[in-house]
Design goal:
The chain has helices spanning 29-37, 75-79, 93-96, 141-154, 196-200, and strands spanning 9-14, 17-22, 43-47, 54-58, 64-69, 121-124, 130-133, 163-167, 174-178, 187-190, 204-205, 210-212, 219-220. The chain is an alpha+beta fold. The strands form four sheets. A four-stranded antiparallel beta sheet has the order 2-1-5-13. The chain has a four-stranded antiparallel beta sheet with strand order 7-6-10-11.
């Protein structure tokens, strides 16, 4: 229920192998199982015990699997098997190590709480506008996206004209877009020794107006 037909394509990565799978001719669960398992990359499809949900299982020990969209499609999401979504828990990132964040910073002179010391990373747009982001309390990818967008809005940026944060439309990970069209670099850098930007896969400098983050929430075998 809820899946559009005909379906489009999904991308499956496991053990360094990448396959783009066209599901446009698939109409039954059995056909889906056969199509995925014929890839021979250690991924098995099964129905959950309650018969209401699909499970894509990684059967290769020591490898990490990801399932993502292709070219802005929505098939993996409609099937409920995209491994990186807004609902993905940060605690599942980086092989279960999660996403680091700094909190509880105090001014060393006054001894008072200093919110600037709780900022995890800074985003600098090509027109020179910059803003810090604090992800304290974030539990999911959607929480992180909300924290980034709120910080951008507080910096006086228009969403999405000047700046936007969301899910990569092709592949997995977080994307950031810069609409200011300035002449400088578009980048994300860490603040206060926080590992958040690196753990989220968005640390670095963009090549152009889009910073496409890496997938840090791949699924390992049990």
């Amino acid at each position: 229920p809820g899946v559009s037909f005909p379906m489009g394509s999904i991308r499956i990565e496991n053990a360094g192998q990448i396959r783009e799978v066209d599901l446009s001719g698939v109409t039954t669960i059995g056909e889906l199982q056969n199509t995925i398992e014929s890839l021979q990359i250690g991924v098995r499809v099964e129905l959950n015990e309650d018969g209401r949900r699909l499970n894509f299982r990684n059967e290769l020990s020591g490898s990490s699997m990801s399932i993502s969209e292709v070219g802005g499609g929505s098939t993996a999401t409609e099937l409920g098997v995209r491994t990186f979504s807004g609902a993905t828990q940060l605690s599942d990132f980086n092989g279960g190590r999660g996403v680091g964040s700094v909190t509880g910073g105090f001014d060393p002179v006054t001894g008072l709480p200093d919110p600037q010391l709780d900022l995890d990373f800074q985003i600098t747009l090509s027109d020179g506008t910059s803003f810090g982001v604090d992800i304290t309390g974030a539990l999911t990818v959607d929480d992180v996206l909300a924290s980034i967008s709120d910080a951008a809005t507080n910096a006086g940026l228009a969403i999405p004209a000047d700046f936007q944060a969301g899910l990569n439309p092709d592949g997995n990970g977080i994307f950031l877009s810069d609409g200011t069209a300035g002449g400088g670099a578009f980048s994300v850098e860490r603040l206060n020794n926080s590992t958040a930007a690196q753990d989220l896969g968005i640390l670095g400098t963009a090549d152009g107006a889009i910073l496409a983050g890496s997938d840090q929430a791949q699924v390992a075998s049990d």
